[in-house]
Amino acid sequence: MPVPVLRVDAFADRPFGGNPAAVCFLEAPRDDGWMQQVAAEMNAGATAFIEKQDGEYRLRWFSVAAELELCGHGTLASAHALWETGRLAAGEAARFHTRAGLLTCRRRDDWIEMDFPAEPAAAAEPPAALLDAMGARPRWVGRNRMDFLVELADEAAVRALAPDLARLRTVEARGLIVTARADDGAADFVSRFFAPRVGIDEDPATGSAHCALGPFWGERLDKGGLVGRQVSRRGGLVRVALEGDRVRLAGQAVTVLRGQLVD
Question: What does the alpha-carbon distance between residue 203 and residue 232 come to, in Å, rounded to a whole number?
Answer without folding.
Answer: 8
